Amino acid sequence: MDDCGEGRGTNRLMVEKLSLSCDRLLSHLQLACCPSHCASPLQGKDLLIHCLLDPELKALRLTGHHGDISAMVFGTGRDPLLLCSASADYVIVWDIQRCYRRTREGVVASGTVIGTLLGKVVHLSFCPCDERVAACSGDKVYILNSNIEEVLSVLAGHLGPLTAAEFCPWNKDILVSISEDRTFKVWGLKMEEILYQSAVLSASPLLSVLLLERSRQLVTGSADGQVWSFTLPENHRCHLVTKLDLHKVQQRHQRHLDTVAPQTGGVLGITPDPVETAKPVLRICAYHRRLPDIDHGQQSWVWIGSSDGLYLVDLGTSELHMTLLFRDHPNLSITMAGSWAMSQGLDNSMIFVVTSLFEALVSVLEVNLLGSGSVDNLCQHLEGLSVMPRAPLMPESPLNAELKKKGPKPPTKTEKRGVKEQPLVFHTQVKSSGYTQSPRLKMFSPKTNVQKKTPGPTKTNKKIGCLVSDYPGDTAAPSVPHTNLSTVKTPTPVCCAQYSGNSLSLSLSLSLSLSLSLSLS
C-alpha cells in the first residue's frame, strides 16, 4: 500500500487528506476510523494504522492474522483506544497506544485474541463501554468478551446472512441486527431473546443500521436507497416514524435549488446527471454540531454514504441539506464508493474512509461545514442578526406603503336578497282557514264489501311433478318393477338407499365399499 496523495481537492468543503493504493480490492470490507486514527488492511493479513492528527507520524503496522482481514472497528472510548479486527481464523483486539509504545521500543506489537474460527466476519461493533464485541458471521451474531477469549452468547434467528449489528447507546444490553432477509431484530442480551422483529421492509437487503441516542430512534437503510426511521421505546415496540427514498429526496432538493438559484452548482447544488445510478445506503452516521444555539434542532441529522457520494439528511423533516457527489469533485481519487467508515471529528468536522468500488484505492476525506461559506451555514448563523438602516427610506420605497382597511363589500345585483326584517305586530282578530267551518259529520267510511282474490294454481315443473307429488294414501304399495338396473357384474347386496332432498336422484351404498348416485329424472 502506497501513499498516492495528501491534502488533495481544491474545494474547502471536502478535502482528501490521504489516498492509499492497495494490492487488492477492498470494496465491500468494513474499514475503521475515529477522530484521531484510521485503519485499513495491508496485504490482506496485516493492519495499517494512520494518525490523522499528526500526518508526519509513521504509519503503524500490526501483524497477527493468518487469514485475510474482513472487518475492523474502533472502540467508543479514547483512553485506551481499542481496535478490533477479524478474519476467518481470529478476532483480535488491539490497544493502539500500547502498540505505538512497543513499536518505539523495538518490540513486535501484539493484540488479544478474543475469538477463534468464527467464520468470515462481515461486521464488528463495540458496546458503549467497550466491554463486549458483536461479530456478525453467517446468520449468527457472536457476543465476545473484549478482554479475554470468551464467547458470551450466540444469537441466531435471521433467515439470511447478517450484514450489520449495533449495540444500543443508552442500553448496553440491547442489540439490533439487520440481515439480507430484509428484516431487523431487537435482541435482549440478558435473556438472549428477541424483543422485537420487523416485517420484511424492502425487496433489497438491509445494509446499514444506526441508533440515535438523543431522539431514541433506530435508522436502517437498504441496497435500493430506502431509509426507515423507527422509534425504540422502553417496551421495544418499534413504530415507523419516517420513510424516505434517497433518489426522490435528491430530485426534490434539486428542484428547490433550481427555483431558488438556477445557476447554483458544485457544493450546494447537484449537477444534473443524464445517467440514473442506484443509491445504496452503505453507511449511516449521526451528525451533531457542537454549538449550543443550534444543537437542539439537529437531533436527527445523519450522513448517508452511498456509491455516488455523501448526503446530509434531516430525518425529522425528510429534507436533504447537502449533497457531496464524487462527480462534482474531480480532484478526488475515487469516483465510485464500495464501502464507507464515518466518525465525528474533533472540530465539528466529519472523517470519512471510503473504498473504491472498482479500484484498489482507499481515501480519507474530511468534511467541515463550519466556515465552508455555504448558504445553509450562513443562514444558521444569521438567524439572530438585526440590521438597522443608516438612512431614511426613499419616498417611493414599498416599505412606506400603508395598508388599506378592507370594508364590507357593497351588495351586488346578482346576489340573492334574504327576507327583510319587519316589526312584530299583534292583531286582535285572526282569520284562519278551517276554523270558521262546521266540523265534518263523517270522518271516514270503511269499505266492508272488499272481495279477496283467490290465489291461482301454482305452476309446477312438469318434469318432476310425478316425483314431488304425494303418493295417494288409499292406494296399495307399488309391486310392479318399473326399471331394473344392474350396478355390478356380480350379485352384491345393497346396504342402504336414500333419496335426495329434491327426489331427483337416488344414492345407493353397496357392500363392496361402493357408493352410486342414480338420476331419476
Task: List the topology elements.
Layout: E1 2-5, E2 14-21, E3 32-33, E4 37-42, E5 46-51, E6 60-62, E7 69-74, E8 82-87, E9 90-95, H1 96-104, E10 112-116, E11 121-126, E12 132-137, E13 140-145, E14 151-156, E15 162-168, E16 171-179, E17 184-188, E18 193-197, E19 206-212, E20 217-222, E21 226-231, E22 239-245, H2 246-260, E23 283-286, E24 301-305, E25 309-314, E26 319-325, E27 337-344, E28 349-356, E29 361-368, H3 375-381, H4 465-468, E30 494-499, E31 505-510, E32 515-519
Characterization of the model:
- By secondary structure, the chain is mainly β.
- The chain has two domains: 2-370, Methylamine Dehydrogenase, Chain H (7 Propeller); 492-521, no CATH class.
- It is built from four helices and 32 strands.
- It has helices spanning 96-104, 246-260, 375-381, 465-468, and strands at 2-5, 14-21, 32-33, 37-42, 46-51, 60-62, 69-74, 82-87, 90-95, 112-116, 121-126, 132-137, 140-145, 151-156, 162-168, 171-179, 184-188, 193-197, 206-212, 217-222, 226-231, 239-245, 283-286, 301-305, 309-314, 319-325, 337-344, 349-356, 361-368, 494-499, 505-510, 515-519.
- The strands form eight sheets. The protein has a five-stranded antiparallel sheet with strand order 1-2-29-28-27, with no helix packed on it. It has a four-stranded antiparallel sheet with strand order 3-4-5-6, with helices on one face.
- It is flat.
- The termini are far apart.
- Keywords: WD repeat.
- Residues 397-419 are annotated as: Disordered.
